[in-house]
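Hey, can you fold this?
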Amino acid sequence: MTSSMLAMVLLICAVFAGVEVFISQKLAKQLEDQFAIRLETNILEMKSYLDSIPENAAEINSISHPAYIKIKERLEQIKHDNVLENVFILGRLQDREQIIVLTGDEDYYGSDFTFSPDINQAMESGQTTVSAIYEDGFGVHKSIFIPLLDSSGQTFGIAGIDINASVVPQVKADIFWITTIIMIAVAIVGSLVAYLISRSITKPVIALMHGAEKVAAGDLTQRVEIKRNDELGKLGEAFGVMRRNLEKLIAQISQSSATVSGTSEQLYHAANDMSASSQQVATSMNSMNEGVADVAASIADSTASIVEVNADLTRVTAEVKIMQEMANAVAGQSEDGQQLVEKTLGQMNAIQQEMEQSQEAATQLGSRSREIGEIIHIITEIADQTNLLALNASIEAARVGEQGRGFAVVAGEVKKLAEQSSHAAGSISELISSTQHESKRVLQSIAQGNQAVQTGQVWIHKMFDNFNVIFNGVSSFSSQMDDLKLALDKADSSFEMISNAMQKISGVTEEQTAGYEEVAAAVEEQSATMQQMTASFRNLSQMAAELQQSVQSFTIRQ
C-alpha cells in the first residue's frame, strides 16, 4: 500500500516536472517573441531615421565627421527611449569588418569587429535577421540586424540593436527552482500523507491479519477492535461476528461430541449386555429344544406302550370270549385260567405304571410349557426394551444430524427386528397356550385311562376271586365272563382314546420343537444383529472421541 502511494507521488512529481519544462519553454518562447517584436520595431525606427537623413553612414570616415555625430546622437536617443543595450552600425570597408557607430560614452569608430553568422546572413540576403539568445563576455543578448546600402546601392554594412535578454535564462532558472522546491514539497507532503493514509489502512488490516492467524491457529478468544466507520470498520465487525459464531459453533460441537461419546458408550455397553442376553436366550432355547425332543421321545415310547397294552387287551378280550365259549370246560382248565388272571393282573399293574409315567410326563410337559411361556414373556420384554432402545437411539441419531443418519438406519432395523421378535414371541405364546390346553386334555384322558385301568384291576381281582371259587360254581362263571368282556371292551375303547391323545400330544410336541428351533434361529439372528450394533456403537464412540479431540485444538472462552 505504501509503495503504491509513493509511486503515485513520484508520478505526480514527474508530471509536474514535465509541466514545468513545458511552461518554462513556453514562457521563454513568448519572451523571445516579445524581444523580437521590440527589436523589429526599434530597428525599423532606426532604419527610417537613417533613410530620412541626407547623410549616409558609409560616408563617415572619422568621429568628427558630421554624419557620425548626428547619427550617434540619434542612436543614443533611440537606445535611451527604448531601453536598449546597444545600438550600432557595422560596416565592411576596404575588406575590413569594423565598427562605424556604437552607442556609449566611448567612441569605437574604426575598431575591428568580426561579423557573426547572423550579420553575414543579413548582408548576403539583404533581409532583416534576428539572432537567437546568446551569451558572450558582456552578458546575454538578443540582436537584430538590417542591411545598409551606400549611395551607389551596394550593401556596405548593417544597422543592429542588442537587447539585454538575461531575463530569459533568469526566468527559466527561477521557474526551475520554484518548480523544484514545489516538487520537493509535494514529494515530502505526499510521502507523509501516503505514509499516514497507508498506516491508517494497513494498521487495521495487520490487526485483522494477526486475528485471522490466531483464529487459524485455533485461538478463538482474541478480539480485534477496529473503531472506524468505513469499509475496514465493517470488515472488522464482520470478522468479529464470524469469530463469535465460530466460537459458538465449536462450543456446540464440543458439547454435542461429548454427549454423543457418552451416549454411544452407554449404547455400546447396553448392546453388549443385550448380545450376551441374546446368547443366553439362544442357549436356553437350545436346551428347551433338547428337552422337548426328549419329551417327544418319551411320548413316542408311551404311545408304543399304550399300543401294546391295547393289543394285550384285545387278546384278553379274545381269550375271555374263548373262556366264555369254553365255560363247560372251565373246570378242567381253571388252574390255567387262574394263571392267566395272574398274568393279566401283572399286565394291568404294568399298564397302571405306564399310565402313571404318562401322567407324570404330561405333568412335566405342562410344567415345561409354563417355563417356556415364562421364557417367551422374558423374550417379549427384551423385544420391548430393544424397541424402546431403538426408539431412543433414533432420537439421539436425529439430534446428531447428518453424522447419525447411518446410526438411525441401524436403529430402525433394530426396531423392526424387535417388533418381529415380539410378534414371534406372541405367536409362540399362543402356540404354548394351545399346547398347555391340549396337555390338560391329555392329563384328563390319562386320568380316565388310569381310572379305567384301576377298574380293570378291580375286575381282574374279582376274576381272580372267581377263579378261586370256580371250583364251587361254574354256573356263575359265564355271567362273570360277560361282565368281564364288557369291562374289557370299555378298557379297549379307553386305551384307543389314550392312543389317539398321545399321538396328538406327539404332533404338538413336534410343532413345539419346530417353533423352538425357529425361535432359536431368530434369537441367533438377533444376537448377530446386536453384535453389528455393538460394532457400530463402538465406531460411533470412536468418531465422537476423534471429533472431541479435534475440537479441543480450538481455544474458546468458558
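Oh, and this one too while you're at it.
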Amino acid sequence: MTLPNAITLARLLAVPATVWLVVRGWYDAALWLFLLAGLSDAVDGWLARRLGQVSRLGSLLDPVADKALLVSVFISLGVRDLLPAWLVILVVFRDALIVSGWLLGQMLMPSAQPVRPHWTSKLNTCVQLLFAAGVLAMLAWQFHVPALEAAAYAVVAATTTWSGGVYVVTWMRSMMRLEPGGEAP
C-alpha cells in the first residue's frame, strides 16, 4: 500500500472516532480530529502526485473518505439537534442521489466514460468542510452568532443543491446520448 493510500485509509478510519466524539459532546476533540482529517485530504493527494503514486485505489478511496467524514459529521450534528434536519437531509440526499446515479449509470452504460467531478462539487465539498469545521469550532469554543449561522446554512444549501443539480443534468445528458441497446456513441 502506498503512503498516500495509507493516509486516505487513516482518514476513513477516523470517521467513527469523529462521530463518537460529536455524539459524546466532546466538540474540541472532534474539531481537532476533523481538522486533521481535512488536512490529510490535501496531503494524500499532494503526496500521490509528488511521489508518482496516483492509483486507482486512491482515486476511489479519496472521495469515499471525504464523503464518509462529511456526511457522518452532518448526521451526528443533526442527531444532537445542532443542525437543522432539513440541511442534514439535503446533504445526505445529494450524496445518495449522486451515488445512485453513478450505480445506475454503471448498469445502463458500462462502456460510457465516467462522470468526472465537476468544479461545483469541489466547491461544495470545500464549503461543507469549512461549515462543519466552523460548527464544531463554535460548539467547542461556545460562541454563537445567529446571523452568521443562518448565512452559513444558506450557503451550504445553495452549493449542495447547485452541485447536485449539475450532476443530475450531466447524467441526463449522458442518458440522452445513449444508443439503443445501452451503448454510448
